[in-house]
Amino acid sequence: MIAAPTVGVLALQGDVREHLAALREAGVGAVPVRRESELAAVDGLVIPGGESTTISKLLEIFELLEPLRARLASGMPAYGSCAGMILLAGEVLDGRPDQQQLGGLDVVVRRNAFGRQVDSFETDLDVTGVGSVRAVFIRAPWVEKVGAEVEVLATVPRDDPAAGQAAGRVVAVRQGTVLATAFHPEITGDHRVHAYFADLVREA
Predict the structure, then answer these.
(1) pLDDT mean by block of 10 residues, the chain; 204 residues
(2) Residues 156 and 169 sit within 8 Å (Cβ to Cβ)
(3) Which of 33, 44, 51, 76 could form a disulfide with 8 if both were Cys (CB 3.0 to 4.6 A apart)?
(4) Looking at 19, 184, 191, 194, which residue is catalytic?
(5) In the 8-state DSSP scheme, what is residue 5?
(6) How many Cβ atoms from other residues are within 10 Å of residue 199's Cβ?
């Protein structure tokens, strides 16, 4: 019998407990990651929401920035939600000049894009590989540009009257084994996005 993979949740800020619970529901081992030795022991990593510049600084303080970049470069599966999407992006608009990027996604992301219209926004999304999802956006980014190898998994419906400038924007992407969403699936009780990521880890 093949042992279930272990997925880490970067435990520096954000909904760590909620992500851990969602991953366990998806049938994988789930552990918090705060040290390089803990990062080295996992098969994949979730980067939660929070404040991307703060997480960036904490990665440096905890001496995780370069080890995490190295693991991503070597092909470790990763999933970033909200701030996690920002950190995984190759380029960030409206970010701070001292913010560090992890790489992993050939996308251009606009930081706090939703925050200019509404601090919180909800809509139903059709997410490729997952299905219809109730998505909660909290001062979320959106994707402005995707590279040739990036698959767009979801966009904000254009017919949602509450969407405003977010209508039609890309909010979920995948590049190989790296997944990112602008929304927070860990807070809705729907664990299908985590199950989708768990499958990526198993396949890797």
Answers:
(1) 87 94 97 97 96 92 96 97 95 83 94 67 95 92 96 95 88 98 94 97 94
(2) yes
(3) 33
(4) 184
(5) P
(6) 15
